[in-house]
Predict the 3D structure of the following.
Amino acid sequence: MFGIDVPEAWIKPIVIAIVLAILWVLEGLAPMYVGRRRRLGHDVSNLALGIVNAAVVALIFATLIVGVTAWAADRGFGLMNLVDWPAWVEWVVVLLLFDLWMYTWHVINHKVPLFWRFHAVHHSDADLDASSAVRFHTVEIVLSTIVRLAVLPLLGMTAGQLAVYETILLPCILFHHSNIKLPAGLDRVLRMVIITPRMHWVHHSDWQPETDSNFGTTISWWDRLWRTFRLREDPTTITLGLKEWGERETFNLWGMVSQPFRRGRATGESYSSDRSSRSDEDDSAS
Ligand SMILES: [Zn+2]
Ligand SMILES: [Zn+2]
């Protein structure tokens, strides 16, 4: 299989732990936002939610994912089973197509009110850092995994290819959420291919035109292709989070879990209507 073995299940937690530790040190040494409060409590809450989600997926869905992908392979079902390209081409194509699916699914989560209600938990973090990368409501994770059970066989993607994708994805999402002051030139070079903090932080702005931009997960090309790419000249001027959220939810596991079920604006039914002066920037500037 393309000369590489499928990552074992234990590789993902180890990759996350190593990358998180490196980013945590860098966030302390060279933060983009200075003067954050209660960093440890914030990170522990986010990581606790991430561990719950990982456990739910492992316990309920891991066997199902292996089952449906094996079923598709046995029957020659799905896009990649219809073509006969060199193995490395098939790997590159299927990983790119799945990343395009991730972009599409993210857009759907912003456009469908019921899905936004749960995705808003990710956006309500007003103190963004690497730990925010795993801050997703469990219902959002369950929904996305159920939809994957259809997407994977349609693509003809194997469980091994999904494991490789996720092993590449995890360091990328930890990195683009991290609170690291990256040199502008380095960020610009990196974002020719991958999503960088400067790109993804715009997505976490409380101003809707920015919230509805930069939907990419790993590769930055989809946002350029579908014209959802957006930057802010000075990322430290971005107001992070959803304006209607208070601190209790930001730092509290129960607050995150119960957020979608509470009434009012805080359920995420509407974005901030704050249209105060903001500057847009295309990718020609640094
Ligand atoms: Zn989003
Ligand atoms: Zn994010």
User: Anything to note?
Assistant: Residues 11-267 form one domain.
